[in-house]
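Format is chain and fold; as here:
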Amino acid sequence: MSSTIKCVILDDEILAISYLKLLCEQIENVEVIKAFNDPKIFLNEINDLDCTVCILDIEMPGINGIQVAERISDSKKVIFTTAYKEYAAEAFDLNVVDYVRKPIKKERLIQAFEKVKEINANSQKKNFIEWNTNIGKTIIFTDQIAYIKTSEIDSRDKEITLKDNSTIVLKNLNFRSLLEMLPSKDFAQVNKKEIISISAIKVFSTSEIVTNIKVNHENFLKLHIGETYRSSLLEVFGNR
């Protein structure tokens, strides 16, 4: 039996909330535990609510959905809804599970919840991840991963460098979801676009990491440490 996905809705339009709740009630193992039409009230309560997923409308007066997503706990997965396609790239950069265009169809919402289920299932696996890649559905053992970066071709994709220097591209997956799949003690996000395996680090300072990944015969890959990621990176080493 599948566990129930508990979700919270935020949309400034009451009719939109009612319609979204109706769709969620028609999807098996999905439960709406609360709905909000005010972003400020949502932010005051969300981190204390027992929910897995936040369904956020992007276009709202005052505080928009993207600003809301930046302020909630990383333990809450985010599905964005909007009528405006121009937010897509920014939404994926924020590590959300999915981006659903309005008018929302039940079948499309089911796909979003399926992604949540897949991420939850993969997060229980400590030695491998399974995802769609450029070579199809693939199992990748985490102890073989050296480095991960956002694809330069499509920011929704993530390029993995393995310890043998081969690469593979994870399709349509954001960093928040990816980090949940990886053993937290073995990987750290370095900046907005890069994740490093702790075993691939040679030395690091407060601003830079030198890895053991060769970029040519003489030089090794160097990574800039983003200011917002510095303390969490130091925490990883402190817990080892």
In short: The two ends are 36 Å apart (CA to CA). Helices lie at 14-25, 39-45, 65-71, 88-93, 106-123, 175-181, 230-238. Residues 232 and 238 are 10 Å apart (CA to CA).
